[in-house]
Amino acid sequence: MRLYLASTSPARLQTLRAAGIEPTALPPGVDEEAVVAAHEALSGPLDAREMVQLLAQAKAEALVGAEPGGEPVDGLILGGDSAFLTGGSIHGKPHLPDVARQRWLAQNGGHGELWSGHWLIDHRGGRVNGAVGRADVATVRFAALDDAEIDAYIATGEPLLVAGAFTIDSLGGPFIRRVEGDPSTVVGLSLSTLRDLVRELGVAWPSLWNRRPAAE
Fold first, then answer.
1. Pick from 122, 211, 216, 101: which is nearest to 166 by CA?
2. Coiled-coil ranges per the record (predicted)?
3. Which of 4, 8, 86, 186 has the fewest CB atoms within 10 Å of its CB?
4. pTM as predicted
């Protein structure tokens, strides 16, 4: 069973690989700000859970009808999105060093909620047979960093490209004291949730295994 990942996120890709799945990763080409703005214009403001779920669905649906390598998508399509909620505000990727530093000063030694949305489309046989989705949350508690650590971390560029301006699986890992919830949710893809969704579509989780574990 082929899994198509509607994302170019290295963290999501590595998470799936570690779980024995080598997906076909394709950029969804979704204008996230436009999708959110259009929805809010019709239905009002979105909370964190609603926003990540909306974008996860939009990304997955963007691959319906795609033909990577000249062949139609035949398998399961996974879309995902993440946002960090702290201090009552929703934060995506900071992109700019100054923005990342402001966020770290606000969350330093504190905590927040990392929301990850999942949308899974059954596209076996090259057609849509059904879809399921769910958003999950994990609470992240941060260590207290000094200014030099914050500046050094931002200088690496890593926090500029991830929701909440931190990672758990790379340089930012030592700055996290504790995670309450599925740890893989923090990288933008809850493996336990994905397994539930796969099974809801009538697919056996082991059928997705197509990658040997890395040798120790």
1. 101
2. none
3. 8
4. 0.91
Please tell me what DSSP assigns to residue 214.
Answer: P
CA distances (Å), origin 13, targets 8, 23, 100, 182: 8, 7, 24, 17
Reading the chain (216 residues) residue by residue, the pLDDT tens digits are 999 999 988 889 999 999 999 999 999 999 999 999 999 999 999 999 999 999 999 999 999 988 888 889 999 999 999 999 998 899 888 999 999 999 999 999 999 999 999 999 999 999 999 999 999 999 999 999 999 999 999 999 999 998 899 999 889 999 999 999 999 999 989 999 999 999 999 999 999 999 876 654
Active site residue 81: yes
Task: Point out the catalytic residue in the list 31, 47, 74, 81.
Answer: 81
For the chain, domains (ranges, CATH) are: 3-208 (3.90.950.10)
Q: Which residue is it, tokens 């000063």?
A: 105
**What are the residues whose beta carbons fall under 8 Å from the beta carbon of 215, sequence distance 6 or more?**
none
Cα 172 from Cα 49, distance rounded (Å): 24
